[in-house]
Description:
The protein has helices spanning 64-71, 103-110, 128-138, 144-157, 173-185, 203-219, 231-237, 255-260, 265-275, and strands at 26-35, 38-48, 53-57, 79-84, 87-88, 91-94, 97-100, 113-116, 191-195, 223-227, 240-245, 248-253. By secondary structure, the chain is of the alpha/beta class. The strands form three sheets. Strands 8-9-10-3-11-12 form a six-stranded mixed sheet, with helices on both faces. A four-stranded antiparallel sheet has the order 2-1-4-5, with helices on one face. Strands 6-7 form a two-stranded antiparallel sheet. Strand 9 (191-195), helix 6 and strand 10 form a beta-alpha-beta unit. Helix 4 packs across helix 5 (173-185) and helix 5 (173-185) runs parallel beside helix 6. Residues 1-22 are annotated as: Disordered.
Amino acid sequence: MPTPTDPTVPAPREAAPSSSAETPVIEFTDVEKRFGDNVVLKDLNFTVSRGERVTLIGPSGSGKTTILRLVMTLEELTGGYIFIDGEPLTHEERNGKRVPVSKKRQKALRTRIGMVFQQFNLFPNMTVLENIIEAPIHVLGRPKKDAIEHAHSLLEQVGLPDKADAHPTSLSGGQQQRVAIARALAMDPEILLLDEVTSALDPEVVGDVLNILREVADTTNVTMLIVTHEMGFARDVSHKVMMFDGGRVVEEGHPDKIFTNPEHERTQKFLGAVLGHN
């Protein structure tokens, strides 16, 4: 019997959002990122439409997580521009020069973006409920009563309705990651970034976490930018898959095409190794 992450059995998927004249939700323009002399990304250009779910695949070190961290402003851009809804995220061109945007503008854009990390990143000194309501109250300025009500609803959604008063250290890895998903969703993000969210989990709980994310994909219009080695999940939820190698996109397209008939030799070799094909 095929498993939920079996890439040969894709789930039904809605059509990709229209890529008409609407402003992209995420746009990378000539993006460059260096760590010292190491060029991780160079002249990177791509867009993500509103409601689109895009998965980045490729070998470790190809720049995928760096892309998410740049969108989350956890890394500083070396060159180029990133736009959120057409607004410059960290730098803009002014009088012919590339200059930083104000911290106030950057912070306002950041509130539209949520991220679920590989290592959960929960506050151990706070309860599950406190972890979830912290940002909605202190960043978005929501009334505490409303934030608490929303948090309980999200805990129900991720299957942890009885864990509001628990501390993260008392939870399993799978439970912590589900809390992390609830915390990200508590901000009602326009964009949800997922960075290898199952790689630190025991194999038997990976399916539970992926099913929650499938439900989010099916029931919301949140734009998703995903980094994962779970190829079945990538095929199930994505409108587009982008294959990265050496900090550049070597191939992109609909997941059915990428996974069944990739054109680029590098994509063929990568998927062959990951999926165990000869």
